[in-house]
Amino acid sequence: MILTILSLVVGYLTLSISIALLYTAWFSGAGHEATGQFLAFAAVCSLGFATLSGWLTALVAQRAPLFHAGLLAILLAAVWGISTFAGSSAEAASTEPMSVAILNLAVGVTGVMVGGGWRLKQMKAKDSAQKEA
User: Can you give the pTM of this predicted structure?
Assistant: First the structure.
């Protein structure tokens, strides 16, 4: 149970901090706007960060990698729903189309599950190598 909670914390912090740093680095300069090119670049980076987060979640959990990656995906969906529809949603709705918010969720969930799948593949390869030896 403790490893499950720790794995979710590590995965969520990895994803949220890396994306926050990406946006902070981009928008810290004068004249930087959310252009189409930046949004495409951010989506690709987000996919990479989400994959890393799913892999780290599965690594820290040490068992059931897809289950733990799925838990992180559920956590992401819950946080996305809260941040999109509650609190500052009226302010965000005027600056970001709903399609971008849905794309962010889809990229995050896909990346997390791919990372969990990669960790599962690594675990199976390790088990089969140990059986052969």
Answer: 0.86
